[in-house]
Design goal:
The chain is mainly α. Helix content is 45%, strand content 5%. The protein has 9 helices and 4 strands, in the order αααββββαααααα.
């Protein structure tokens, strides 16, 4: 009876541990120093995404270049494409030093010319945050494929991982603000609304991951809440407290700072 009045966990502990494990995996594989010293919380503002363009294609490419820069992947050889396909083989990329960050060089591969397609979906242009999240997830797809080890949960959770990796890259606000409550399936003629982004993690999973990012980066709540959609703000504040209570897991991640 008395257990009825106890606070319920925000998420199941298995999902929370998976997020901590994925952040540890990302820190091991993609230069933890870049995360702690260069990665920023990307906001849906003109400060992060300046400029106006009349042409849809030029506007889409401008946003892509800005997303690449914020992700620390400005030198990655990507191009706009019309179809999203996670089954596309990823070139075996290697890096002279860091894979991302201001000192990173362009990746190289066994092939003489490396070209990485990034989806351009015209229907997302009226919803810039959805377009930004879409770009960030595709960049995370290529970055994740360059890791030296398989991610926690294995390849079967790859779409979920790429969303989480997008949060790790700094785009958690855009992912949270454009996520459905549950994953919406699509099958050609039964797709969801044209101007929305299909997601694999729920909006609460994404918001918890955003809280984990913010705690690691020591970002005050108000810097996040003013850009986060209102319906997720109460959950975010609880998530920050919950993340902070996972002291052993946080200590494990903070060890990568040294």
């Amino acid at each position: 009876m008395f257990g009825f009045f106890q606070n319920k966990p925000l998420l199941d502990e298995e999902s929370i541990q998976w997020m901590f494990d994925c952040f540890a995996w990302a820190l091991r594989n993609f230069d933890a120093k870049v995360f702690f010293t260069e990665t920023t919380l990307v906001t849906p503002t003109n400060d992060c995404f300046p400029g106006e363009e009349d042409s849809e294609l030029v506007k889409a490419n401008l946003i892509l270049q800005q997303v690449k820069r914020h992700a620390g992947m400005a030198n990655w050889p990507v191009y706009l494409a019309g179809q999203q396909d996670y089954e596309t083989a990823i070139p075996r990329l290697s890096f002279a030093e860091a894979a991302r960050g201001q000192h990173a060089l362009a990746p190289v591969a066994k092939e003489s010319n490396v070209s990485l397609p990034v989806t351009y979906q015209p229907e997302l242009l009226p919803n810039p945050q959805a377009l930004i999240a879409n770009y960030a997830q595709l960049l995370a797809h290529y970055l994740g494929g360059s890791a030296r080890e398989l991610p926690p949960g294995g390849a079967e959770n790859w779409p979920h991982l790429t969303e989480l990796l997008g949060v790790y890259l700094g785009f958690g606000l855009m992912f949270a603000n454009t996520a459905y409550h549950v994953r919406v399936s699509s099958c050609g003629s039964c797709q969801g609304p044209a101007a929305e982004r299909e997601n694999y993690l729920s909006q609460f999973d994404i918001t918890y991951a955003l809280a984990l990012f913010s705690v690691l980066k020591q970002i005050p709540n108000h810097e996040v809440l003013k850009y986060l959609k209102k319906t997720l703000r109460p959950f975010y504040k609880k998530a920050v407290k919950d993340v902070s209570g996972h002291k052993a897991e946080l200590a494990r991640l903070k060890e990568f700072q040294s």
